[in-house]
Amino acid sequence: MSYSVGQVAGFAGVTVRTLHHYDDIGLLVPSERSHAGHRRYSDADLDRLQQILFYRELGFPLDEVAALLDDPAADPRAHLRRQHELLTARIEKLQKMATAVEHAMEARTMGIDLTPEEKFEVFGDKDPERYAEEAEQRWGGTQAYAESQRRTARYTKDDWQRMQAEVADWGERYDALMAAGEAPTSPTAMDMAEEHRQHICGWFYDCPYEMHQGLAEMYVSDERFKAFYDSMRPGLAEHLRDAIRANAARHTG
């Protein structure tokens, strides 16, 4: 059984012009010609075309494809094994590329659409993407998480810098408050706790007093959060937790 050039083009998903070119350069010469001189392709020709397209998909130049296929010492099974190895390597490379793209998508979803230089400039050594996966696992199904994603997706580098500046200013003032010996239950400390809550509400999601108290407990129990707050001043995490509790009681009691 033989096939016309149009049929083969349809089977293989290539153009008739491509098949004519392969014939002209001797890469795929049809086994037969019709009485009118038209190209007719056999099943063996289709097998060779499949091999050609495999190698072309893998980026081999046509002259190298011809050399590979016309090697008299080559076993057809060896071609398949070679192609399988090459395809497996390519799949691994594509998977790595896909993972990189997924990370980029995750960063964009988190609103961190910055270059490495910009990230360092804004966040220093505190990588904003480091705990993105854990954050989604812990809070991914919550309304607060969804709202945070929606808001931060719009933030620019300037927005992140402004936010960081607010945090730094708040931290300096809280440090001074503790240095002055203010108790967590003092009006000044409670006002600072309320400012902390308003910062969350303004930048990320609505944070009612009950939720704020839950966060306060995490600031002490989670060593990473505790390290962040205690880096502003040793003991600040626990002091803030107590101030948040007192502030919540002041507003809800």
UniProtKB/TrEMBL annotation:
Record carries keyword Cytoplasm = no
Annotated HTH merR-type domain residues = 1-71
UniProt keywords, alphabetically: Activator, DNA-binding, Transcription, Transcription regulation
Entry annotated with the keyword DNA-binding: yes
Q: Which SMART domains match?
A: HTH_MERR
Q: Which SUPFAM superfamilies match?
A: Antibiotic binding domain of TipA-like multidrug resistance regulators, Putative DNA-binding domain
Which InterPro entries does the entry link to?
Answer: DNA-bd_dom_put_sf, MerR-type_HTH_dom, MerR_fam, TipA-like_antibiotic-bd, TipAS_dom
| Gene3D superfamilies from the UniProt entry | 1.10.1660.10, Antibiotic binding domain of TipA-like multidrug resistance regulators
The record's annotation in Pfam families points to: MerR_1, TipAS
Q: Which PROSITE patterns match?
A: HTH_MERR_1, HTH_MERR_2
Taxonomically, which superkingdom?
Bacteria
Protein name as catalogued: MerR family transcriptional regulator
Q: Which organism is it from?
A: Streptomyces pseudovenezuelae
Q: What is the lineage of its organism?
A: Bacteria, Bacillati, Actinomycetota, Actinomycetes, Kitasatosporales
